[in-house]
Amino acid sequence: MPLNKLITLAEAVRQHTWDGMQYASGAALPVGSDAIAFGRELLRQQRRGLHAIFHANTQQLNLLAAAGAVTQAECGFSGLEGFGFANGLRRAIEQGKVVLEDFSNLAMALRLLAGALNWPFVPATVNIGSDLQYRRAFEPNVHPNPNKIPSLTDPFSGRQIGAFAPLRPDLAAIHVTLADQEGNAIMLGTEWSRFELSRAAKRVVLLADAIVHTDCMRQYPNLVRIPGIIVEAVVYCPFAAWPQASPGMYDVDEAHMKAMNQALGSDDGTAAYVRDYVESYADLDGYLDLIGRERIAELSHGATAFLLDPYRRWLLPHAEALAMTTAARA
Amino acid sequence: MSTDYRRQEMMAIATGREIRDGELAIFGVGLSMLAGYFAQAHHAPRVRAMTEGGVYGATPVGGLPWGIECNRLAVNAMSFTSALDALGCLVASGRCDVGIIGAAQVDRFGNVNTTGIWDGPIGASYRPPKTRLTGAGGANDIACGAKRYLIMVSHEPKRFVDRVSYITSPGYLDGGDAREQLGFVGSGPSAIITTLGILRPDPQTHEFQLDAYFAFSGIEEILANTGWDLKMAADVRVVPEPSAEELAALRRVDETGMLRR
Predict the structure, then answer these.
(1) CA-based, 20 to 30 A from A207: which of A97, A284, A287, A328?
(2) Which run of H or of E encompasses A260?
(3) Sequence spans of domains, chain A
(4) Which of B61, B96, B111, B134 would you mutate first to test chain A, the one with the most A CBs within 10 A?
């Protein structure tokens, strides 16, 4: 009998998160594959004081920062690409509610790699010589700061380089396109830094848009970049990245991306957003109703839907994936 | 030659003209992607274009992508890898020929700030900016690693400052050999292309000076919009206006008319 690691989103947050933890997600780009539904559940269970590790900002960090759940954050990119500035995160930083430590996008990937390999540091040939090296938000009174990206000498060439500290977050909530019940997972689209994050984090919870039969993984083992042996739990969560995109599964919800970011631009807007889009549903089906069945159909028939074609025969129907989640709990 | 075009379109075309056929090139979302894919559509069909997301062989479909992981790019990609691969193996390694980045502020030595706007210098103690911007993203990695890079920025006094308050992506730092001392594999910004003209660095001091202006602009207007005593190159010239072919190619790429708004 294969292990069944499927649990509900509420249970995953109850079991694997706590106030003040180092929480990683968003090993994705601001318009792409992030486990945003996990962030909504963190707010529903009123987690506070999080130290967020996000390779790049996404709507999840934007929301968590706006709602006051995050006090410290480390990331590379902090905007929303074509959707502009991240209003929630930006306001929280400007008001001093979130202290953001800035790195570049490569630096974040390298730091996750160093955490994954349990290296003491990773050589820095980028970020050096700029204020990414000299300014340290977590230690603001030391300038130029020697502790964020300390200078060191390349023992071979004698060149002055820097050292990036490794990242080992307490938990990584990672969005994947397809997972089986054991936690073997396939990501469609760029994996960005989800591979490194899955090895760097002390524990990993997957949010999968679809559950597939394990035979799917045996057919495409080269594509299974996250194997079940390093995964704690799997959550079946269609539209886990909404309103962002999941290549092959659904397109970016442009209208909601804009409306959400606009709402997060004020305290009142944030409160209304949390009321309407975080606390308003009871379970997974309620969440999907909230997105809207018509909108789901529309977003699911995007131009990249063909990417899913090779895997369709192994997709478990919605009811079956839900039943497996319940069975695992029993 | 056409005279019916917008300033932003001229900026994108002038930037695209800097991209040579066959180069390994990295573009960010927005203006730089338009300029880069314009070059591919017009004079550089074999440019090896990529984004920092590790999305290779893709050409945007259905309009300008909202982001690097957007389905408008994922729809016809040949390869999906990772950030470590794109920004590390292909950019920070020194393999990438040219990158295009944007800027909220740029200074006389081509240093770029995209982190925040403070009311004056930050001072000895770090403090939150008055206006928080988008941070480094992959731009710092491109600025350190790409063989050369281009900076695209709207030409306004608040953006062209003597010294940026925060160096997010290094240009030539304090000028002279300051950048060389850091041993980056990339040799620095080769041009700042603006909505009014083109600035290039002096080979010795690495201070940016006016190289050329657009037909609708002029030296006076550029000086009035630059926050330092901008020097002139020995032979300041007028940039040729877009040809009909160039404009047509750009507008095919800019399907949703972002540059004409």
Answers:
(1) A97
(2) helix A254-263
(3) 9-102+168-329, 120-164
(4) B134
Please check whether residue B252 touches A, CB under 8 A: no
Secondary structure class of A277 (helix, strand, coil): helix
Q: How far is B80 from chain A (nearest CA, A)?
A: 5
Cα end-to-end distance, chain A, whole Å: 15
C-alpha distances (whole Å) from B19 to each of A126, B201, B209 are 24, 18, 21
Chains A, B: CB contacts within 8 A come to: 223
Fold type of domain A9-102+168-329? Glutaconate Coenzyme A-transferase (3.40.1080)
The domains of chain B are located at 7-260
Q: Is B38's Cβ below 8 Å from some Cβ in A?
A: no
pLDDT tens, position by position, for chain A (330 residues)? Answer: 679 999 999 999 999 999 999 999 977 788 999 999 999 999 999 999 999 999 999 999 999 999 999 999 999 999 999 999 999 999 999 999 999 999 999 999 999 999 999 999 999 999 999 999 999 999 999 999 999 999 999 999 999 999 999 999 999 999 999 999 999 999 999 999 999 999 999 999 999 999 999 999 999 999 999 999 999 999 999 999 999 999 999 999 999 999 999 999 999 999 999 999 999 999 999 999 999 999 999 999 988 999 999 999 999 999 999 999 988 776
Contact list in A for residue B62 (CB cut-off 8 A) is: 303
Q: Please judge whether B71 and A110 are an interchain contact, meaning their C-beta atoms are less than 8 angstroms apart.
A: no
Task: Please check whether residue B216 is in contact with residue B175, taking contact to mean a CB–CB distance below 8 angstroms.
Answer: no
Q: Which residue of B has its CA nearest to A28?
A: B69
- Give the nearest chain B residue to A159 (CA atoms): B183
Structural contact between residues B231 and B258, judged by C-beta atoms closer than 8 angstroms: no
Cβ–Cβ < 8 Å for B140, A130: yes
Return the closest-CA partner of residue A200 out of A223, A230, A241: A230
Strand partners for A315: A212
Distance separating alpha carbons of residues A296 and B22, to the nearest angstrom:
41
State the angle between helix axes of A87-94 and A254-263 in degrees (0 to 180), rounded to the nearest 10: 20
Query: Is B185 in contact with A55 (Cβ distance < 8 A)?
Result: no
Per CATH, the homologous superfamily of domain B7-260 is Glutaconate Coenzyme A-transferase (3.40.1080.10)
The verdict on B132 touching A (C-beta cutoff 8 Å) is yes
| Residue B185 contacts A where some CB pair is shorter than 8 Å | yes
Quote the CA–CA distance of A238 and A211 in Å, as a whole number.
9
Query: Which single residue is written with the structure tokens 């300038």?
Result: A143
Contacts of B55 in chain A (CB under 8 A): 189-190
Task: Name the DSSP class of B85.
Answer: I
Cα–Cα dist A309/A320, whole Å: 20
Looking up tokens 């599964």, which residue turns up? A249
**Which residues in chain A (214-273) have CB-CB distances under 8 A to chain B?**
244-245, 247-248, 251-252, 254, 257
Question: Scanning the structure block, which residue is given the tokens 């974040």?
Answer: A108
ipTM of the assembly? Answer: 0.97
Cα B96 to Cα A103: distance, rounded to the nearest angstrom = 21
